[in-house]
Amino acid sequence: MKLGWTRFWVSASVMLCIAAASSQSAGVRLGHRQAGPALRKNELTLGGVRPGRDSVGRMIKVNGAPILREPGEPAQWADLCRGLVLYAEIGTDNKVQTLRLVHDVAAADCEVARNSGWQTGRGLRLNDECGRVAALYGNPDSRSPSTKDGQPLELLYYAFDWAGPDVPQVMQVVCTTEKDGQAGRVVQITLAASSL
Question: Which domain holds residue 158?
């Protein structure tokens, strides 16, 4: 009797191993790339808005009226207490196509700084340590050096085409470089419905 149960458990264990290996390879066939032990993660929103899907009306509902909106130029929202600007490129269909969050104005002296909520859906914010980007999304598809006003920067590029056509396709994160033992910091986040 014991031999029968032993054979059963051995057979069951082998079947579970085969099923697990099969599901892992199916995940790879379905386009899920792996970054180390965890699957890569894509991003859907920045500032509470989903590029390629949400309209400028939704952008206004979530973030209030823009401080600037001129034809042919990105619309701009500002958090003057923190010196943040959220730029939105609007398509001809009145949908938000690209969002870019940067420190772009001098911060005002605010008694009570409000929380703009300007972060990605996974919680990445400006001034986060650059290492947090890979912790949230996996390794980028590419890293390249950059500069702005003579400051050395690093551009992290993520392509989300593997997640399907109905999600934002590209995210770029710009970080300062590590200096004097201090970690690099996120200084710009761009999320776009199509390739940049």
Answer: 34-192
- Specify the pTM: 0.77
Do 78 and 149 belong to one domain?
yes
SS3 per-residue string spanning 2-14: HHHHHHHHHHHHH
Q: How many CB atoms are closer than 10 A to CB 193?
A: 22
Tokens of 187: 């200084």
Q: Is residue 174 a contact partner of residue 153, using CB atoms and an 8 Å limit?
A: yes
Residues 62-85: tens digit of each pLDDT: 999 999 888 889 999 998 888 899
The answer to whether the CB of 47 falls within 8 A of the CB of 101 is yes
What's the structural domain count of the chain? 2
What Rg do the C-alpha atoms of the chain give, in angstroms?
22
Side-chain-side CA neighbours of 11 within 13 Å: the count stands at 6
